[in-house]
């Protein structure tokens, strides 16, 4: 695409757009306790409405599949045994899962109710159509920012319609409705109230002083920057009559206890109805500088195990974290669709799910030989089990990384078909750190949120709960808002 440098947007418009984001919490906290705006686009990406409708139909089916896989504990243990040997952190999660679900005695101790809050990320490849990039089942955040980005573009359209129109890819398109924040809060609220209601008949004696509001506990990382996205969700829950509290694993390690009926009790707060993990997807979440490393990682991960032994809604459970792993994505991609019947999908539903799964291959001697001798290296990505940005290797760099891997590490990695999404046909303006920059080759990924409690949808749209658009220059490999060159965006439909 040729670069056609266009006149910059008036500084007044950029300043007011930045002020809008700050006023509406679309920001990152800085180390000195100030805040800066999240990077954003000035106008939405385009998608064919038929493609979007297909994703709306298939994504809840993916969530249904993942939920049922996550509750198939014997399958998880057998299917993920090899990757557990190849990745120390993954081994820890598999071990913790085995502790609580490894046999009938252990399962009897598991009282948690699974709340699957999932973000399924897609890219629309120019040749192959929309395909799944990854499943996100733990710390799958930014639904609040997704809704806010849609609202930001509506604000720009209303205040400066000509400027907004000038940067649209297709002036006939219409904005896609996005209630990601509201619907995610509704799903969480519904699950918390259901847990709370199971104890309503016991609201005497030990429970007569209990707060009448359901209580939501968010497990967070200490000193993280993405707190405003989290607080937006908490505010939405508070408006629905939910009490919200925040704690780190380190704090919880000394503050949790067991109440009557396997109730989870938090010191100075009382009974907890729902636990939402925005931490726990990496080793450092279980590390405390005040304890010896081996001791702290064991103690803090046991805190998470303790939570799952109580009658409380939990996202993400160990099972959900394993079921949304890259290895499970590869196994579901490579197995015949008929096998999905084991997890409650009929053939038509299985075909829909298969339609959005990009090709994947395990890493072994045979596939490495194939990659070195026959594959088009630019058509593949090498992925490990890591969550978030920075865990993918592209193109010619893959061969070098494969040489560095030890044989016992191979099962932690997989090949995945590389997706080449549609490049926006008109330039756009990206605003980052207060500066506007014209981007001529912007590409986007769309994450669809879903919410299922105990296997049933808990939103107003059959489990669907809004979307998140992140865009980046096509020349950049990492598109995360935190870890890459990504910017917040929204969606318009043709």
Automatic annotation (TrEMBL):
Q: What is this protein called?
A: glutathione synthase
Q: Which Gene3D superfamilies match?
A: 3.30.1490.50, 3.30.1490.80, ATP-grasp fold, B domain, Glutathione synthase, substrate-binding domain superfamily, eukaryotic, Glutathione Synthetase, Chain A, domain 3
Q: What are this entry's molecular-function GO terms?
A: ATP binding; glutathione binding; glutathione synthase activity; metal ion binding
Which residue numbers delimit the Glutathione synthase substrate-binding domain?
Answer: 215-323
Keyword Magnesium set for record: yes
Q: In which pathway does it act?
A: Sulfur metabolism; glutathione biosynthesis; glutathione from L-cysteine and L-glutamate: step 2/2
Family, according to the entry, reads as follows: Belongs to the eukaryotic GSH synthase family.
Q: Which domain of life is it from?
A: Bacteria
Q: Which GO terms describe its cellular component?
A: cytosol
